[in-house]
Design brief:
alpha/beta, Aldehyde Dehydrogenase, Chain A, domain 1, 4-stranded parallel beta sheet
Length: 423
């Protein structure tokens, strides 16, 4: 069905209005009610297996016609096993502690006022995402657990899958008392719908883009409400002079090769010049065995003992998302910190050293969401942090930073109890 831009805008605004009304009802639900609704959603996903796979097949046919890569096709594909995993992920959200209503702190004033700071839902959250259909259920379930209404907008490549999954969430949840319009998916995939959504600040309290840099920049440029985002994951490991060199090599190989196409994968190593003659040959052989290509500065190229390419200035700020690694030799801690703060993306950086004082200074001065000591950058993850699930990894500084679990999908308010005090 062809619609004009004004018709699309009107439809999206109507969805936003209804999401705002739903958010007023969601705050009335108890934790037990929310958990029962989540379990009903999960059951409905599995009950609709045939329909979901049929709709996903439509997306796959179109994706193949459009020449999507094998990796993209794999991200798009649903099968019975993946649907079970999607449903189980929703059930796991039901099992997580509910942060809504948690008392963050409370105190009494000399005039007798009692002040309580308590977690509350944000309200209405817009999620704009690409490719993976499971984001529909992950985002909706996490937002719902925290009492937020959700307005979802997925990419065109997964539109049939996303619409079917959102319908399953709505229908399953309704059986257990889900307020109408708590989870909505925008059925329009034109680019203008993103802009309309981003400018709907009268209905959306927060917008979270999950996807490539182009999508994030478009949302940031258009949004009238706060945006939580993560840009590139240009992650570093600095190997200090006092490092356990075998440990450092293990961490580097893991951080680079265990899953290279993700935002917390390692992209650049910085090696202290004092240990370069012994460490580079060690790590070079390990990286060669892991089929990692190296872009190295002159000192590193001379010492690695394996084939490498000369590094360019552009390489230091590149998020490879592949089995490619940049290698730079530094004089010491100061140069390493300066390099990371200049070229990094404030995502995840790690130092390998046996010197605790050096590690503490590195962790204090590196301006990133997560700063590791003697650990792989791959641990920057909601599940690994014990959050149970995450909506994404934020490189912002305000409201949420690093892995965003349930607590980061909440705001807070102050409750003040008095006994007739006047000022």
């Amino acid at each position: 069905m062809n619609m004009t831009d004004s018709e699309i805008q009107s439809a999206i605004h109507d969805m936003g209005r209804r999401a705002r009304a739903a958010s007023r009802e969601l705050v009335k639900l108890s934790t037990e009610q929310k958990n029962a609704i989540l379990l009903a959603m999960a059951d409905e996903i599995q009950a609709r297996e045939v329909t979901l796979l049929e709709e996903n097949a439509k997306d796959l046919v179109r994706a193949e016609e459009n020449g999507l890569s094998k990796a993209m096709l794999d991200r798009l594909t649903l099968d019975p096993k993946r649907l079970v995993a999607i449903a189980q992920a929703v059930r796991e959200v039901a099992m997580l502690p509910d942060p809504v209503g948690e008392v963050l702190t409370e105190w009494d004033r000399p005039n007798g006022l009692h002040i309580t700071k308590k977690r509350v839902p944000i309200g209405v959250i817009g999620i704009i995402f690409e490719s993976r259909p499971n984001v529909t259920t992950d985002a909706a379930s996490l937002c719902f657990k925290t009492g937020n209404a959700t307005l979802l907008r997925g990419g065109s490549e997964a539109i049939h899958s996303n619409v079917a999954l959102a319908a399953a969430l709505q229908a399953g949840g309704a059986k257990a008392g889900l307020p109408a319009d708590s989870v909505q998916l925008i059925p329009f995939t034109d680019r203008a719908s993103v802009e309309h959504m981003a400018q709907m600040d009268q209905y959306l309290d927060l917008i979270i883009p999950r996807g490539g840099k182009g999508l994030i920049e478009k949302v940031v440029a258009s949004a009238r409400m706060p945006v939580i985002k993560h840009y590139d994951g240009v992650c570093h490991v600095y190997v200090h002079a006092d490092a356990d060199q075998n440990m450092a090599a293990d961490i580097i190989v893991n951080a680079k090769s265990q899953k290279p196409g993700v935002c917390n994968a390692l992209e650049t190593i910085l090696v202290n010049r004092d240990i370069a003659p012994t460490f580079y040959p060690l790590v070079g052989q390990r990286l060669l065995a892991a089929k990692v290509s190296i872009h190295a500065d002159g000192e590193a190229q001379a010492l690695l003992g394996v084939p490498s390419e000369p590094a360019t200035e552009q390489d230091w700020g590149t998020e490879w998302l592949d089995l490619i690694l940049s290698a730079k030799t530094v004089a010491g801690l100061d140069e390493a910190i300066t390099h990371i703060n200049q070229y990094g993306s404030h995502h995840t950086d790690s130092i390998i050293t046996q010197n605790r004082a050096v590690a503490e200074r590195f962790q204090h001065e590196v301006d990133s969401a997560v700063v590791m000591h003697n650990a792989s950058t791959r641990f920057n993850d909601g599940g690994e942090f014990g959050f149970g699930a995450e909506i994404g990894i934020s490189t912002d500084k305000l409201h949420a930073r690093g892995p965003m679990g349930l607590a980061e999908l909440c705001s807070y308010k102050y409750l003040v109890d008095g006994s007739g005090q006047v000022r």
